[in-house]
Write a structure and sequence with these properties.
about 260 residues; mainly alpha; about 75% helix; about 0% strand; globular; transmembrane helix
């Protein structure tokens, strides 16, 4: 409880500092929403042209996109600077966090809290539109709503675990931007589309090595199509917890081997 109280206080302080520049906050929020909208518009154009992707309709693909997008938004809202650990390692600013009487990861997560209102609104809009279309067509019922919530939260935890593990590698190699482009950016982009469009080796990569497919595609198989069983949603949550635990373990090992820049 004490840790949670400290976390709330630090987050509130970070938000207040962000809101000192209101124009920058609202402009960046609007631009983030615009960029996300363009990404989905490209997918919509493809589906409008061909009708579907490997049997996945526009509303189903919109669901995949929205669940993944909202999970990433939650992750990057509450742990934005985990993704930017490299700059702390290169500049030596991580040393300042080591001197604070709070866990280093907690301190890092509460620095520069990014309130992604634009991305949140845009993701919710696509999700609501997709769910409305799917419910109206009779493909799913209202029972899909709580399962979708579970999928979004577990997806956020999964992406946080992957991001934390990738950032932790920086304690050994320092420069991790290229690695993050693979494990976070490229993997997330690939997961926006149905997994079946990729060759078998890439499906294995997105299911086993970088299991980002469990953030949206795997639970969607049951939620939208009734394939597999409820265990797909449970397995996705379990994979998220395992990824988070692995990321935390790698973080602790890496932090114990961290050598200051001496600056």
């Amino acid at each position: 409880m004490k840790t949670l109280r400290i976390y709330r206080l630090l987050v509130a302080s970070s938000i207040r500092s962000r809101m000192q520049y209101k124009f920058n906050f609202w402009f960046s929020s609007a631009m983030s929403a615009f960029i996300s909208a363009v990404e989905f518009a490209m997918l919509a154009v493809i589906l409008h042209k061909f009708g579907h992707i490997q049997g996945w309709s526009l509303t189903e693909s919109g669901y995949l996109y929205a669940v993944l997008h909202l999970g990433r938004t939650i992750y990057r809202t509450f742990a934005s600077d985990v993704h930017h650990l490299e700059k702390y390692l290169v500049s030596g600013d991580l040393d300042g966090l080591l001197l604070r009487p709070i866990p280093v990861l907690l301190g890092l997560m509460t620095l520069n809290v990014s309130i992604r209102i634009g991305e949140l609104v845009q993701g919710l809009a696509i999700l609501i539109w997709s769910l409305h279309g799917l419910i109206a067509s009779g493909q799913i019922g209202f029972a899909a709503l709580p399962l979708t919530f579970i999928a979004i939260v577990s997806g956020a935890a999964l992406m946080f675990g992957i991001g934390l593990a990738t950032a932790s590698v920086g304690f050994w190699i320092t420069r991790i931007e290229v690695l993050q482009n693979i494990t976070e950016d490229a993997a997330r982009t690939a997961a926006q589309y149905p997994l079946t469009i990729y060759p078998k080796w890439m499906q294995g990569l997105l299911l086993g090595i970088i299991p980002i497919a469990f953030a949206n595609y795997m639970p969607a198989l049951y939620i939208l199509r009734g394939q597999g069983g409820w265990w797909l949603v449970a397995a996705s949550a379990l994979i998220a917890l395992l990824a988070l635990a692995a990321g935390m373990a790698l973080w602790r090992v890496g932090l114990s081997r961290y050598q200051s820049t001496g600056s």
